[in-house]
Amino acid sequence: MAAAGRWATHLARRPTLLASSVAGFAAEELRIAAGRSSLHPDPRDRRFVDPAWQGPVWRRVAQTYLAGRDAILGSVDELDLDDKSADRARFALMQITEMAAPTNVLAGNPAALKRAAETRGRSLARGARHLAHDVRRNGGMPSQVDTRPFTVGENVAVAPGAVVHRTELFELIQYQPTTAQVHERPVLIVPPQVNRFYFIDLAPKRSFVEYVVSRGVQTFLISWRNPKPVNREWSLDTYAAAIVEALEVVADISGSPDCNAIGFCAGGITLSAVMAHLEATDQRLVESLSLAVTTIDTAAKSTMNAFASERSVAAAIRKSRRKGMLEGSELAKVFAWVRPNDLVWNYVVSNYLMGENPPAFDILAWNADVTNLPAALHAEFVQLFTDNLLLQPGGITTLGTPVDLGTITTDVYMVAAINDHLVPWQAVYEGTQAFGGDVRFVLSNSGHIAALINPPDNPKASYLVGDDQPSDPALWLKEAERTAGSWWTDWTEWVLPRSGGRRPKPRKLGNRNHPIIEPAPGRYVLER
């Protein structure tokens, strides 16, 4: 909002620019009224796909909205704002222009008016019930999904396995092998602390865990506990120590002195810090490191880092320290308003104006199953993000040792998503320059989560890969070659040669030191 204020101040100080913008809008309005305007919505904009928008009246309504939006957003580029202020102002103004879309109100939405007439108002009655539900149960945000058809352990997170180790912070799940022989060296999966793990084991045929197990890899996974205010002191060191403990338990159960490890998103950040600690202390617990949609360079341009002003960061940290945690529902709202048209107003229209039930979709159900972030870890992540500390040797310390990614000499596999709105792929690519070992970088199609839930039989799946890794990611993209299929297959072909020889699968899960505690998916994933 401060940036939006600077935009308004700069605009007011340049009356000729303001007058020119108003005159340009007025001239466009005259063309719209005369039917000579060439403005038209983006064909991919679902707000204007109803045939009614092709009629003379509704077409003019859409064109007027587009002309106003373009005039407001275009004015940012004409002012002498620094890049960050311009990005923030554009973001704030985007919120206003998206909110002002005619389709967000009944009178400006021909499809909703038609539905109301066809149903004799029943669609609006259903929409009112949906609105009342969201005010009472969803913090006033429109529901994105009907979660009722999905139950953890029944039709999501159903890969067979067992909890073989439990602490106050995490459960360690060992999955049941499905092949007669398994590779000697297992893999440990480290999910993010800000989500529940089961997007990695979403559903049969769409489960990364299921696929890895089917390739003969002994598979273990950390399930983080959802923190409460009493856990406010859980820090990066707390989570790093937990990963080291999990690695030691995996080694004890599998009989292998080391394992391969793969971290997803924030779990990959923590795992990278652990790897630097293991290198510094000469502990050989990990043979290879894999990172999926993991930010290495937080200075890479993204919508998210537009929020990171000193005032907003300080306010966020104060709030989480006061509560003892960053509530998952608050973080979900931030992510939603990054893409307001797709993740907010789209559901306002469908749920309230059209009277439709939210879709029953497992990915969205997982996304709605939010978790909290302890205050100490939240503050450290924010500081790491704003100061780009992961790329600074010694910028942070983990378990008493400085973190320097250049000291990590194990082989590294990195996968990013080309349409990721949370972790720009360029922010992941920087790892090709930062790590000291041999790095394979793969750029998957789709977005942040869809790229991860990417089974090999997905006909739309593809990825880019290139042998050369110049410092400029744009040069890499220009030379990269596209391959049809999923990065799951590519990663498995990469990790299998690093997984040792084969041996008969274990007769049972766990061992004498770590017996089965309860079946997967365990207790912690169910805690609210």
Strand content: 5-15%
Largest sheet: 11 strands, mixed
Spatial ordering of strands, largest sheet: 15-14-13-12-7-6-4-5-2-1-17
User: How many domains?
Assistant: 2
* Shape, per Cα inertia axes: globular
Structural class: alpha/beta
How much helix, percentage-wise, in residues?
40-55%
Runs with pLDDT <50, length 5+?
none
Structural Rg: 25 Å
Oligomer: single chain
| DSSP E strands, number | 17
Q: From the 3D coordinates, which CATH architecture of the largest domain would you assign? A: 3-Layer(aba) Sandwich
- Span between N and C termini? 33 Å
What is the CATH class designation of the largest domain? Alpha Beta
- CATH-assigned fold name of the largest domain: Rossmann fold
CATH superfamily of the largest domain: Alpha/Beta hydrolase fold, catalytic domain
Put simply, the count of helices is 18
Overall pLDDT confidence: 94
